[in-house]
Every structure is written in C-alpha cells, then in structure tokens.
Amino acid sequence: MNQAIRKLSGLLVLPVLLAALLLMPVKAHAAAYECTAELPVTVKLNGDYDEYFEVTITADDESYPMPEQTTLKIKDNRGGYFTGFYYTEPGDYTYTVREKTGDTEYMYYDDVVYTVVIQVTNAEDGGLTYQVYANRDDNPEEKTDSLTFLNTYTPPAPVFLTIM
Hints:
By secondary structure, the chain is mainly β. The chain is built from one helix and ten strands. Strand 8 and strand 9 form a beta hairpin. The longest helix has 22 residues, at 2-23.
C-alpha cells in the first residue's frame, strides 16, 4: 500500500508542476524581430556658393545602434539620409545631430544641435516599427520629424572704383 501511495503522489506532482509553469508570468521579448530606420537631413543655403556641408551623428549611449555612415556630405539645398540603423528591441534610442563648421569665408554655418529620439515599438503585425522625434537645442519644447540646417553665405558687396 505504501508503494501505491508513492505512485499516486508522483502522478499528482506532475500536473501541479505543469500548471505552475503555465501560470508563471512570461515577459514578451521582441528580439526575434527587427527593423531598420533612416533619418532624413536637409541643408539649405541662403546665398550663392558651391559647397558640400557635413552633418554628423553620435549616439547618446555607445550601445545604441549606429547608421552605416556617421557623417553625411550634403550639397546646398539638398538632403540626405542616415541609414542602416538596425534595431532588435523596442526602446527609445537618442542621438545628437549637428553640422560641422566649415572654413569658407563669409559663410555662416548653422550651429543648431538636434536631439533625436528613434522610438522603436512593437508593430501590429508582431514585428517592430519606429518613429523619429527631434528637438532643436534652441527650441526644446517643439518636436519635429525633419532635421534642417540653414547656412547663409554673405560676401561683402563689390566696391567699384571710378577712375577719372
């Protein structure tokens, strides 16, 4: 009889263990999913000058995914993209974007600094999706999804001499 009780208790323990495993909370993890993001940047120019402008990006945390290129060379009044951000987990990833100051005489280079948040979330289809938010350092309350730098070229007016 003692052996029968052991067999019966062994059979009862198995369903209890299975039920406990099924009732344990499980944290969903989206590591099996991925998304790639891109960040558009535009450089505008007031004035007439032929120059490529450099825009750089740095991650606020060295563990954050970075784009394929961390410096863009953009011709005046055109745009470019930081591409190749590769995300496998939801989260808010912050970056700093600024234009490098060049050395062209009479050129005012925009010194605005953008704080960019790439917000990665779970998508309805089970994958990941992203949104981009940016704030200018000179207007931190206003969010934008476009990064625009405005440079101005203002050479002095030519002086004409009259010879008599």
